[in-house]
Amino acid sequence: KQEVTQIPAALSVPEGENLVLNCSFTDSAIYNLQWFRQDPGKGLTSLLLIQSSQREQTSGRLNASLDKSSGRSTLYIAASQPGDSATYLCAVRDQGGKLIFGQGTELSVKP
Amino acid sequence: NAGVTQTPKFQVLKTGQSMTLQCAQDMNHEYMSWYRQDPGMGLRLIHYSVGAGITDQGEVPNGYNVSRSTTEDFPLRLLSAAPSQTSVYFCASMKSQGNQPQHFGDGTRLSIL
After folding, report:
1. Nearest chain B residue to A51, by CA
2. 3-class secondary-structure state, position A110
3. pLDDT in tens, B10-51
4. How far apart are CA A58 and CA A11, in angstroms?
5. Which of the residues A4, A52, A82, B43 has the least number of beta carbons within 10 Å of its own beta carbon?
């Protein structure tokens, strides 16, 4: 059974710092891996999707990497801003289309 | 662009009552799914559908029913509400083909007394 783990559960950083969020999964037979952002009381917004054949994806200040063989993904946020404060979730998609989520990392960026 | 629309946004029920959570998408997505989100548990898949007329169980299906009579709609029914079903429910959709992201609704916050 696929299990997804995110470390740390919570992170507080001062504005301007670069930071890394970690995601690990137990079964390397994934279709893709997605990173989402969730603001309090809101739904999930897709940030980046990495196909199983890819190593990384970039969008603005965000960079996500994927190492299938080791079952790891990282989300790198450059020059963090208070507006980046949210919960970040990673999810792996299996061949049938189902997403298995980690429990998320709650990020707080202090001005 | 409506995307994925969930109604209602909030609901309070008494134990034993039944209700239907509505979900509609206007993106012609084949794949739709329902999740529940609980503190410390992350999002867990309840039911999903790969197309009209086809549904299947996810990780936590007990106490819930779904149907998919059209591509656009995927309602979730609570048959006899229990306090353990107090949660935030999210509906999501995506294109089945290719590497496409899932689109989520804003959620329904459900309390069972």
Report:
1. B99
2. strand
3. 999 999 999 999 999 999 999 999 999 998 778 999 999 999
4. 22
5. A82
Contact B45 A98 (CB under 8 A): yes
Please enumerate residues of A whose Cβ is less than 8 A from a Cβ of B: 4, 31-32, 34, 36, 41-46, 49, 51, 89, 91, 97-104
Looking at B1-113, which runs of residues are DSSP E strands?
4-7, 10-13, 19-25, 31-38, 42-51, 54-57, 64-66, 76-78, 87-94, 103-104, 108-112
Exposed, middle or buried, B110 (CB in 10 Å: 0-12/13-18/19+)?
A: buried
Query: Which candidate from A49, A89, A102 shows the least CB-CB separation from B101?
Result: A49
Q: Is the CB of B43 less than 8 angstroms away from the CB of A43?
A: no
Q: How many contacts does A have with B, using Cβ atoms within 8 A?
A: 56
Q: What is the pLDDT along chain A (111 residues), one digit of tens a residue?
A: 899 999 999 999 999 999 999 999 999 999 999 999 999 888 999 999 999 999 999 999 999 999 999 999 999 999 999 999 999 999 999 877 889 999 999 999 999
